[in-house]
Amino acid sequence: MIPYGRQEITDNDILEVEKVLRSDFLTQGPIVPKFEKSVADYCGASNAIAVNSATSALHIACLALDLGPGDWMWTSPNTFVATANCGLYCGANVDFVDIDPNTYNMSVKALKDKLAEAEKLGLLPKIVIPVHLAGQPCDMIAIHELSKKYGFKIIEDASHAIGASYNQTKVGSCAHSDIAIFSFHPVKIITTGEGGMALTNDEMIANRLVHLRNSGNTRNKLFMQPRPENEIWNYQQIELGFNYRMTDIQAALGLSQLKRLDKFISRRREIAKHYDKAFDFLPIKVPFQLKGTLSSYHLYPICIQENKNEITQKEIYNILWKNKISVSLHYIPVYLQPYYQSLNFKRGYCPNAESYFKSALSIPVYVGLSLENQNNVINIISDAFLDYKQE
Ligand SMILES: *Cc1c(COP(=O)(O)O)cnc(C)c1O
């Protein structure tokens, strides 16, 4: 079976993890801060807070920006459910902005129109979460401009996009946002098994993220309240937090993987280039690259266009699976999920996201994907277009 994505683990990765297992600290010890600093430096952000998943990072990012009941959080429907769920965890209302039919990211025009409408109704969002789908950065300058005009905060869901760049800066620099989030799940660009990170250039937000991942506790005198001198107050809980800590075991794997990040990205770009060329002659839309951006190609989504044999996305999906290629789909529009349907979102709400859903397939792209297997995928897809209806 060829998966759509998979991790690369080397002997050195294993060695680094083993070192931690033989050390004094298993959970947060010296390696977590080292991993945080390395990612922050790589991205050009001043703070990075490691947590146990991107889902946790999204949750505490919303809390650190004071999202709560009565507030609105907007995101793209073309994402993993966690991007929307974090708003609901905070008791806020969640809404969706349709995607751009070329980039598959949140449409700036749709966002602009929706903001103008919301302003009239007094229902402006507190937070907007753009998602860099497949590692293709969103138009952050335009979204940042809108945030200044309408007064919302921005969390970048960059789960797919570590190593990508926008306008000569690395995604995660937070040059045009308040917080950026990475995921280190095994299918993502680098992995820690499970894990995530929140980056920010705001010291106050960073402090809150640190408290929120650790049950709301602090040992920093700056944040502690005065208590009687004859009592032992070596820490204080100052807000309601969680146990979202990353372990040193995970951070060691992440740190070791980070050393190969640039190699991973160039390998993914190489594969993407090969696919781009191969699909040029087929009724397939390949991932569009916005000017001034470099995708990390976490995913390589193709869109099946209308063709004379009338073969559909679903049929190509089935043919690939029959040939032991486990293609996937990123994503079913979040609001079409049964849980979100129960919140009363209607089919047709974001037409571009729905038409993408009906035509997109994520074909395999990962560091260890051989040229032979890339060609295998290409041949199965091109044969599907040729053979179909001749059977
Ligand atoms: C993977 C992913 C998440 C969640 O990441 P976890 O680390 O698995 O919690 C969130 N958003 C997007 C866009 C993702 O792809």
- Tell me the number of structural domains: 2
CATH class of the largest domain: Alpha Beta
Query: What small molecules accompany the polymer chains?
Result: pyridoxal-5'-phosphate
Corresponding CATH architecture of the largest domain:
3-Layer(aba) Sandwich
- Indicate the structural class: alpha/beta
Overview in brief:
The chain has 391 residues and is α/β, with parallel strands linked by helices. Helix content is 37%, strand content 14%.
Description:
- By secondary structure, the chain is of the alpha/beta class.
- The chain has two domains: 11-258, Type I PLP-dependent aspartate aminotransferase-like (Major domain) (Aspartate Aminotransferase, domain 2, 3-Layer(aba) Sandwich); 261-387, Aspartate Aminotransferase, domain 1.
- The chain is built from 13 helices and 17 strands.
- It has helices spanning 11-21, 31-43, 54-64, 82-89, 108-121, 140-150, 203-212, 248-258, 261-278, 313-322, 338-341, 351-357, 371-387, and strands spanning 2-3, 47-51, 72-75, 93-96, 127-129, 153-157, 165-166, 169-170, 179-183, 196-200, 217-218, 236-237, 284-285, 293-294, 300-304, 325-326, 360-363.
- It has a seven-stranded mixed β-sheet with strand order 2-10-9-6-5-3-4, sandwiched between helices.
- Helix 6 links the parallel strand 5 and strand 6.
- Helix 2 packs parallel to helix 8.
- The protein is globular, with a radius of gyration of 22 Å.
- The two termini are 25 Å apart.
- 47% of the residues are buried.
- The structure holds pyridoxal-5'-phosphate.
- The site of pyridoxal-5'-phosphate has 14 residues, from helix 3 and helix 4.
